[in-house]
Amino acid sequence: MDGNEILLLGLGIQPPWQLVDQRLDTDKTPHELHLEVKAERGSKYACPECGKTCSAHDFQEKTWRHLNFFQHHCYVHACVPRVKCPEHGVKLATVPWARKGSAFTLLFEQAAMALVREMPVNAAARIIQISDTRLWRIVQHYVAQAVAKFDLSGVEAIGLDETASKRGHNYVTIFIDMARKAEPVLFATPGKGKDTVARFAQFLTDHQGQPEKIKEAVCDMSPAFLSGIAEQLGNAEVTVDWFHIVQAFTRALDEVRKKENHVTPMPKHVRWAVLKNGQVHHLTTNQLNALAELLDQGFDTATAWRIKERLKWIRQAKTERAARWRITRFINYAKAMIGDSILLEPVTKALETLRRNAQRVVRRWTSTYTNARLEGLNSLFQAARARARGYRNNETFIAMIYMIASPAGSILKST
């Protein structure tokens, strides 16, 4: 096997294409190996639209970056024919070593994707010595190709939640298949609220799914989500996970603490003393002392904390009926404690949220699914942010979510 044959093997080039020239440019740093590929004279080529064998109409010069040849950058040059098809007219033929529209060979892109699966995109870009912008284009192409293969015909229960993609009001809404234990992400879309549910319903339809087959949706108490589910997934019953109830009362408690601290200085260490789980082993000595002082002095924050901690009593209900009864008793108990305190208005709002969503919350006792699965995915989303370090927009963040937490990851590994 001579040198040309070795290079052809490395490029994946087959007849009618052949290597006609090679030169090493040592004036560049790093050095560049340039390989010129040409088809045999009089060759015919397949129409990229219909596959019919056609004659060349004319040629266009193209260049692709290939895998390094030892320490040297390698570039492939070829005059690519434009074929004249009787049915589709003049079209640029495809070449076997690169995909349409790419400035890289297929082998280069495969190596790039292998690196991206194992490290942040910026680091991978530095290793293969291209800009992260160009590498993101490669990633997004192959992720979109994998997502297009999704079959959602069996999806019947979904979970949805939003996650911050960057600082500020930048969000991505994630939809997961509650029945899948691994790679559960089905769809990710920029923004949050009602429109994201409409986009998911369309995505579901485009991938052999049926919106009317969705029987259950697990989400938070966002009015926009609830409205979107009612409109787009008409047969779905909504389950609000207990996590979101606790979260609503914890936020209300923190709001009371901040307002009251402006009026009356509070004990040191009180913030985490009230925001953490109230069990003794979860608190430091300073936090225990701050909590004791807070309760002793009768702050409104102490009342908000007692109400928040009382939620555990509801959670301990054994049946749906018991949970419904305890929610009613809890609301009455909390209203009596709040009285006419203006500072405790955030807690009053949290109580109204619980009352309005009581039936959806009670479904937690009969549903086999919980939003805890979505919350557990937050660690994966954080990993996606780390892998996508330096990402400039939601689309690149979404591409990494698909790679890490959706069936696209397995599809990409198998190709």
In the predicted model, the low-confidence regions spanning at least 5 consecutive residues are: none
The best one-word shape is elongated
How many strands appear in the DSSP assignment?
12
Amount of helix: 40-55%
Beta-strand percent range = 15-25%
Largest sheet: 5 strands, mixed
Instruction: Give the structural class.
Output: alpha/beta
As a whole number of angstroms, the C-alpha radius of gyration is 30 Å
Mean pLDDT metric: 89
Termini, distance in Å?
Answer: 29 Å
Number of separate helices: 17
Q: Which sequence of SSEs, written as H and E, runs from N to C? A: HEEEEEEEHHHEEEHEHEHHHHHHHHHHH
Structure description:
With 415 residues, this protein is an alpha/beta fold. It is 47% helix and 20% strand. The protein contains 17 helices and twelve strands. It has helices at residues 3-11, 106-116, 121-128, 132-147, 194-206, 223-232, 242-263, 270-275, 285-297, 300-315, 320-338, 345-356, 358-362, 372-376, 378-387, 394-405, 408-413, and strands at residues 17-25, 32-39, 45-46, 53-54, 56-69, 72-85, 89-92, 157-166, 170-177, 185-190, 216-219, 237-240. The strands form three sheets. Strands 1, 2, 5, 6 and 7 form a five-stranded mixed beta sheet that branches. A five-stranded mixed beta sheet has the order 10-9-8-11-12, with helices on both faces. Strands 3-4 form a two-stranded antiparallel sheet. Helix 7 packs antiparallel against helix 10 (300-315), helix 10 runs antiparallel to helix 11 (320-338) and helix 11 (320-338) packs antiparallel against helix 12 (345-356). The two termini are 29 Å apart.
